[in-house]
Amino acid sequence: MISDEIGLAITKDCDFDDYTFASPHNISASCSTAINDANEVVGDYINNYDVILDVCYPSIVEQELRLKKMVLFCLFHFFCSGE
């Protein structure tokens, strides 16, 4: 979900072998920037408290949206073409 650029920055600049959880973390400024960039990108899509939460439409909702589009297309075609 993150770009190759951000992923490469994290793997290049971050050394998690000696990471400390206590604040301040022992990471470089470039690593901190890369992690912040990644958090900005996925922040709207990933729930920090439930990472397996499905943020996509359920299949029934997708089907409903497709059917509505089909009905609108058919109505438009019927009224505009006079058939």
Structural notes for this entry:
The structure is a single chain. With 83 residues, the protein is mainly alpha-helical. It has two domains: 1-47, no CATH class; 53-83. It has helices at residues 4-13, 29-42, 59-81. Helix 1 (4-13) runs antiparallel to helix 2 (29-42). The mean pLDDT is 77.
Q: Note the quaternary state here.
A: single chain
Distance between the termini: 46 Å
Number of domains: 2
Shape call: elongated
Mean pLDDT: 77
Helical segment count: 3
- What is the alpha-carbon Rg in Å? 23 Å
Helix content: 55-70%
One letter per element, helices H and strands E, the order comes to: HHH
Please provide the count of β strands.
0
Low-confidence stretches: none
Structural class: mainly alpha
Q: How is the main sheet built?
A: none
The percent range for strand residues is under 5%
